[in-house]
Write a structure and sequence with these properties.
Blueprint: H1 2-10, H2 15-27, H3 32-39, H4 43-55, E1 59-62, E2 68-71, H5 74-107, E3 110-114, H6 116-128, E4 134-138, H7 144-157, E5 160-163, E6 179-182, H8 188-199, E7 203-205, E8 208-218, E9 222-229, E10 232-238, H9 241-257, E11 259-262
Parallel strand pairs: 4-5, 5-6
Antiparallel strand pairs: 1-2, 3-10, 4-8, 6-11, 7-8, 8-9, 9-10
Helix pairs in contact: 1-2, 2-3, 2-4, 3-4, 5-6, 6-7
Region (Disordered): 262-285
Organism: Methanoculleus chikugoensis
InterPro entries: TrmB-like, Tscrpt_reg_TrmB_N
C-alpha cells in the first residue's frame, strides 16, 4: 500500500486522498467506516476526502444510510492525474522560461538557446514583444510550419515581412497578413560575401558545419538567429543595438529591392526563380 500511495501522491493526490481511493479500489465499495478500517484515514476525515474525490469524478457517492463510496476505474483516474500533471509541468516550464528570458534580457545582450521547445518559446516571446514591425528571413522551408502560426498571429497587429529566397515554393501553411518577398541582388559585396556565402551556404569553422535557417528581427531591438551546428539546432538571441540595427538595415535593403510575391494587397505577378539571380548593383549606388 505504501508504494502505491507514494505513486499516487506523486501524480497529485494528497496522502489521505491516495489512501481513501486505494482502499476503495481494494474493497470495491464501502461505507466511511469500512474505508477508515481499510485505509487508516481517520473516520471523520473520510467524509470530506470522499466528497473531494467525488467532485473530481474519482469516486461515486451512493447516498443512503450509510453512504457508500464506489471508485472510478483506475485507468480513468490515472489518465486524468497524468494529464493534469503534464499540464502543470508544461505551465511551470513556460513560467520558468519566461523568468529566465527576462533575467537574460536584463543581464546580457547576447545569449544562446538550445532545444526545440526553448527555440520556439524564445521566438514566440520575440514576436509577442513587437511594437512596430517584424521581419523574417526564411532559409529553411522544411521547418516554416512550426513558425507559421507565430508569423500569422503577429501579422494581425503589426506589419510582418518574410523574405523567401526560393519564392513561395514549399510554403504550405498560411502566414496570415504577412507580406512575402523574393529577394533580388542589390549589392555586389553583400550578395557575394554575405548573402551567398553566409546566409545561403554552410559555413565551416574549426571543423564544425554551420547552416543558417532563420533570422527574426523585432523592430530593430531584438534579433534571433536560428541555425544548425553539425545538424544540431541552436539559436542566438541578440539585443545589442550595434548588431540588431545592422541586421535590420540589411533586411530592409533586401525588402526594398525584392519582388513581392504575396501580401495583404494580393499576389504579386509572375513566377519567382528558384535562385537569386540577376544584375548586381554596387553598394555605393
Amino acid at each position: 500500500m505504501n508504494g502505491l500511495v507514494r505513486n499516487l501522491t506523486t501524480l497529485g493526490l494528497t496522502e489521505y486522498e491516495a489512501r481513501v481511493y486505494a482502499a476503495l479500489v481494494g474493497i470495491g465499495e464501502g461505507s466511511a467506516r469500512q474505508v477508515h478500517e481499510a485505509s487508516g484515514v481517520p473516520r471523520p476525515r473520510v467524509y470530506d476526502i470522499a466528497e473531494g474525490l467525488a467532485a473530481r469524478g474519482f469516486i461515486t457517492v451512493r447516498r443512503g444510510n450509510p453512504y457508500l463510496y464506489i471508485p472510478a476505474e483506475p485507468a480513468v483516474v490515472i489518465r486524468h492525474l497524468k494529464s493534469a500533471a503534464d499540464a502543470a509541468a508544461t505551465a511551470a516550464v513556460q513560467d520558468l522560461e519566461a523568468l529566465s528570458l527576462d533575467a537574460r534580457s536584463k543581464n546580457s545582450p547576447i545569449w544562446y538557446v538550445q532545444g526545440e521547445w526553448s527555440i520556439r518559446r524564445h521566438a514566440e516571446s520575440l514576436a509577442a514583444g513587437v511594437t512596430r514591425d517584424l521581419a523574417v528571413v526564411c532559409l529553411d522551408y522544411g521547418e516554416i510550419g512550426e513558425f507559421a502560426r507565430l508569423i500569422a498571429d503577429a501579422s494581425r497587429d503589426h506589419p510582418v515581412s518574410v523574405l523567401l529566397p526560393n519564392g513561395k515554393r514549399g510554403i504550405t501553411k498560411p502566414l496570415g497578413d504577412a507580406s512575402l518577398y523574393a529577394p533580388k541582388p542589390f549589392c555586389t559585396f553583400f550578395q557575394e560575401n554575405v548573402f551567398e556565402k553566409v546566409y545561403c551556404a554552410p559555413l565551416s569553422v574549426d571543423g564544425a558545419a554551420f547552416l543558417l535557417e532563420y533570422i527574426f528581427i523585432a523592430d530593430d531591438r531584438v534579433c534571433m538567429i536560428v541555425y544548425r551546428e553539425d545538424g544540431v539546432r541552436n539559436a542566438v538571441v541578440i539585443t545589442l543595438p550595434f548588431i540588431t540595427c545592422v541586421q535590420r538595415q540589411f533586411v530592409n535593403r533586401m525588402i526594398a529591392t525584392a519582388e513581392r510575391i504575396e501580401g495583404p494587397g494580393g499576389s504579386g505577378g509572375g513566377s519567382v526563380p528558384s535562385r537569386v539571380t540577376g544584375q548586381k548593383e554596387d553598394c555605393g549606388a
